[in-house]
Specification:
alpha+beta; DNA polymerase, domain 1; Dna Ligase, domain 1; 3 domains; 15 helices
Length: about 400
């Protein structure tokens, strides 16, 4: 079996670093990037702020209490997505096998590039130098035989680090590594493994597979492999991605709301965002999923309905979401709303049979074309016009990618 060489590149304190690079007055100072509305959660902080105890997810008042000199910066998501897209273009100069994991992380399989650029370390240093020169920001890079270990390696030296895990030192690296350092082992999984007296990757790798399977089912085998540093998953470039399973969007509201009219309005906005992306990629779906998180942050629910026919028009998505909402009595004011369209198929290009449906399709296509040309929400439903510049979330969704249907428009 061919040995692979995989890089994981993680931009250091990405949002904060971009802000410091674009504003010399912020360099070397503790800053925290927040959304552009009343929500007071810190999205990310600079390393100067982290050194003083400021963490992602803190409330602004908490961050200020921890670091009185903390500078609050309202985030500019378009700047971050533009920078991320340009950085991924740099990656493709070294290999076509690039998989964007998030806005600030990507995997690169450079196995077939080594004959051109020499060593993987050389490729890493070239990428570091270009990002520093072009954007004046830094990244940490992990080099390893697979994606799991490359991501682990990139976290081992921050900021501006370069860590190599060779096939020969995998076992030594993992022996005392806490299990929560592995990508895919979250807090809940960590607790369950700890209950089995498994605390390190070495212990996980030596655990009997049958014991793990009895506890975790089919993923038991995968957990044992992770503990051994085994990962066969390929670096999947966008052009090779499998069929998208769903199209969705969620929005943290600028304030907690309980007014049914306001909730319906925000659901219409989300329906338009989901519908426009589905239409752009010529997919439609039968299943609508509605997700609601309440004001206490911890309470939430999700329900779905499956229709008899496929849809991708925004008003039809909206009606389906409202039909779900009507079956539930809201217990608290709402903090977050989300809609997704799944059970997808690629639809054929054909006109509806009835004239009213054709008119609706033509109007929708005209609106999509204008929004593609002049920017999202340039043309929209009348009920969304009042205050639309403040509606929705200013947080980049985890689903964002530089290309394709996951390239979600941000504010």
């Amino acid at each position: 079996m061919e040995h692979r060489t995989v890089l994981h590149i993680d931009m250091n304190a990405f949002f904060a670093s971009v802000e410091q690079a674009n504003n010399p007055e912020l360099r070397g100072k503790p800053i925290a990037v927040v959304g552009g509305h009343g929500r007071t959660v810190i999205t990310t902080s600079s390393y100067e702020a982290r050194a003083k105890g400021v963490k992602t997810g803190m409330a602004i008042w908490e961050g200020k209490r921890t670091c009185p000199e903390l500078i609050i910066v309202v985030g500019d998501n378009r700047k971050y997505t533009h920078t991320s897209t340009k950085i991924n273009e740099i990656f493709r100069d070294y290999t076509p096998e690039v998989e964007a994991f998030s806005i600030d992380e990507s995997w690169l399989d450079v196995t077939h590039s080594l004959s051109i650029f020499g060593t993987a370390e050389n490729i890493a240093y070239l990428i570091k130098a270009r990002i520093k020169h072009q954007f004046d920001i830094t990244c940490s890079i992990g080099i390893a035989p697979n994606k799991l270990l490359a991501k682990l390696a990139s976290d081992m030296q921050k900021p501006d680090g370069l860590t190599v895990i060779t096939p020969e030192n995998v076992a030594r690296t993992l022996e005392r590594m806490p299990i929560q350092e592995l990508c895919g082992v979250g807090k809940k999984m960590q607790r369950h493994l700890n209950m089995l007296s498994i605390y390190t990757c070495g212990e996980l790798g030596r655990t009997d597979e049958a014991r793990l399977t009895r506890k975790f089912g089919i993923i038991g085998k995968r957990l044992k492999q992770m503990g051994q540093g085994i990962d066969h998953s390929p670096v999947v470039q966008f052009a090779e991605e499998g069929d998208v399973k769903s199209v969705g969007h969620s929005s943290t509201l600028e304030r907690d709301i309980s007014d049914p009219a306001e909730i319906r309005r925000f659901l219409l906005q989300l329906s338009e965002m989901v519908g426009s992306r589905a239409r752009r990629y010529n997919v439609s779906g039968k299943t609508i999923h509605l997700y609601v998180r309440y004001a206490d942050f911890f309470s939430s629910w999700g329900k779905q309905t499956t229709l008899k026919h496929y849809i991708n028009l925004s008003d039809e998505i909206h009606r389906a979401a409202l039909s779900i909402l009507d079956t539930v009595e809201l217990e608290q004011p709402v903090r977050l709303l989300g809609i997704s369209l799944s059970n997808l198929k690629h639809q054929a290009e054909q006109l509806p049979l009835f004239e009213d449906e054709r008119k609706k399709l033509f109007a929708t296509q005209a609106m999509d074309n204008l929004n593609d040309r002049f920017g999202r929400m340039s043309v929209t439903f009348g009920s969304l016009l009042p205050g639309k510049e403040k509606s929705g979330s200013h947080v980049i969704p985890p689903s964002w990618r530089p290309d394709g249907i996951k390239n979600v428009d941000v504010e």
